[in-house]
Amino acid sequence: MAEYKIKLINPSSHLKEEYRSFYEEWEASGEKMIPSVIERDPSRFEEMLQFLRDNEKGIRIPAGWVPDSPTG
User: Fold this and answer.
1) Which CA distances in Å does 5 have to 8, 11, 48, 70?
2) Are 38 and 23 in contact (CB under 8 A)?
């Protein structure tokens, strides 16, 4: 049996097309997007990346929320 290793990484500028493809495929499936952070439309990709970085640092998150966990 083959062994696979999976690593979660943060979206980045050089993965823009891959991320948009992932998003569009999931959206077309009609399935609920989980985790909810991926519901954010990546059409303004650099703004989305900044939003994710801010969430990781606890910047402009709703009261009572904790910062997102970093990956990698």
Assistant:
1) 10, 18, 27, 19
2) yes
In a 3-state reduction of DSSP, which class is residue 38? helix
Quote the domain boundaries for residue 34. Answer: 13-57
**Distance between CA atoms of 56 and 49, rounded to whole angstroms?**
11
What's the rounded Cα separation, in Å, for the pair 38 and 55? 13
Please choose, from the candidates 15, 19, 17, the residue with its C-alpha nearest in 3D space to the C-alpha of residue 37: 19
pLDDT along the chain (72 residues), means of 10: 87 94 95 88 94 92 88 62
Domain contains 27? yes
* DSSP three-state, residue 1: coil
**Domains identified in the chain, total number:** 1
Measured distance CA(4)–CA(66) in Å, rounded: 32
